[in-house]
Amino acid sequence: MEKEYLDAMGDEMGQALTALKRELTTVRTGRASPQLLDNVQVEVAAYGAVMPLNQLASVSAPDARMLVVTPWDKTTLGDIERGITVAGLGLNPSSDGQVVRLPIPPLTGERRKDLTKVVKKYGEEARIRVRSVRKEYNDLFKGMESEKEVSKDDLDRLLKTVQEATDSSVKKVADIVSQKESEILEG
Fold first, then answer.
1. Does domain 34-103 have CATH number 3.40.50.300?
2. Are strands 100-103 and 66-71 parallel, antiparallel or unpaired?
3. Cα–Cα nearest to 120, from 36, 170, 180, 186
4. Is-same-fold flag (2-25+108-186; 34-103)?
5. Strands 41-44 and 49-52
6. 187 residues of the chain, pLDDT tens digit each
7. Model confidence over 45-82: pLDDT tens digits?
8. 40 vs 80: CA distance, rounded Å
9. What is the C-alpha separation between 13 and 7, in angstroms, rounded?
10. Where are the domains of the chain?
């Protein structure tokens, strides 16, 4: 039973790392990446709905400084342009009637510093998620000990295992954040 709890804890900490990686793909590094548009929502007048951009078009990066959005339905072209503009990514879409081109401007030193702050914020949120998982499982195991389901020695061993998993996950968060910061600063 303890093993299942430890496995579940490892999965939850892994989910925090996966979420961090997913969030970081939306942070610009000065290089064109289709994931930059993953969180863009588009209000499509013809459909009367708000939809994720990736359900309306394909996004490609033909070179390091350009993204090309090719809508599957050309009538949504204007809506897609508005959605990208409203998303606040600092990109200026231009359309030729067939595709939307997004030139990726080089990052200024100040913008790079702002982006590293965003990356650090995402990292701190991931660390908080990992620590909340630690607290949840520490409380669970302490409750099991008070209910006499595990011995004091087993509790000590379990708490040590939880702390080791937490330390490992927090180190992975730090490594991921550090790598993303260096990508932004070197851009």
1. no
2. antiparallel
3. 180
4. no
5. antiparallel
6. 788 999 999 999 999 999 999 888 877 776 778 888 888 888 888 778 888 888 889 999 888 888 999 999 888 888 889 888 888 777 888 888 899 998 887 778 888 888 889 899 999 999 999 999 999 999 999 999 899 898 999 999 999 999 999 999 999 999 999 999 988 887 6
7. 877 888 888 888 999 988 888 899 999 988 888 888 98
8. 9
9. 10
10. 2-25+108-186, 34-103
Separation CA 156–CA 98 (nearest Å): 64
pTM (two decimals): 0.71
Fold of 2-25+108-186: Topoisomerase I; Chain A, domain 4 (1.10.132)
Which residue from 42, 32, 52, 36 is spatially nearest to 75, judged by alpha carbons?
42
Contacts of 60 (CB under 8 A, 6+ apart): 34, 67, 68, 70
Task: Report whether 43 contacts 50 (CB < 8 A).
Answer: yes
